[in-house]
Amino acid sequence: MNVNVTINDKAEQRDVEPSVTLLEFVRDVLGLKGTKEYCHSGVCGACTVLMDGNAISACSTLAVQADGHDLLTVEGLGTPDDMHPIQQAFVDNFGLQCGYCTPGMVLLTKSLLDENPQPTREEIIRYMGSNICRCTGYAGILASVEAVVAQRGK
To answer: What pLDDT is attached to residue 31?
Structure first.
């Protein structure tokens, strides 16, 4: 099947088998390795990407379902030399440890702040709860999101 997407502001067209997941499409077909693979069931958030601005689990979405849509992966958000403010906040506030969940957490944060630019602490906790971090205890993640919110409030 033919899949046409705009990913990280670049048009891509590829033929894939109907059973190829969006995660496989992003990582294996397009070579964008920032999107992580872990649970294969859409519950951990490591594979979070944005489709038309909405956070989705790439492991439980077929590539053909993304046909005609706009996708954003962590590679499209910023670069090591020019980080997006969310990425910088995660670095500055220890929002990462091993880094495995970080791309998904960063994109989930973008989705949250696009939807609600000034969320309360409770709203942040509720929204970010859909992604699992196995090593930070979430304090650094919460501090990172709150730092971006505070910066936007200035």
So the answer is: 98
Q: Which of 86, 23, 18, 11 is nearest to 59 (CA)?
A: 23
Q: What's the pLDDT at 136?
A: 73
Domain housing 24: 2-76
- Note the pLDDT tens digit of each residue in 65-80: 999 999 999 999 999 9
In the prediction, which pLDDT does 137 show?
Answer: 74
- Residue 68 and residue 8 in one domain: yes
**pLDDT < 70 regions, the chain:** 154
The domain that contains 8 carries what CATH number? 3.10.20.30
Q: How many helices (H) and strands (E) does the chain have?
A: 5, 5
Residues 117, 153 contacting (CB under 8 angstroms): no
CA distance 122 to 120: 5
Q: What would the DSSP string read from start to end of 82-116?
A: B--HHHHHHHHTT--SS-SSHHHHHHHHHHHHHH-
Choose one of 76, 96, 115: the last residue of a domain: 76
Cβ atoms 124, 142 nearer than 8 A:
yes
Cβ atoms 37, 124 nearer than 8 A: no
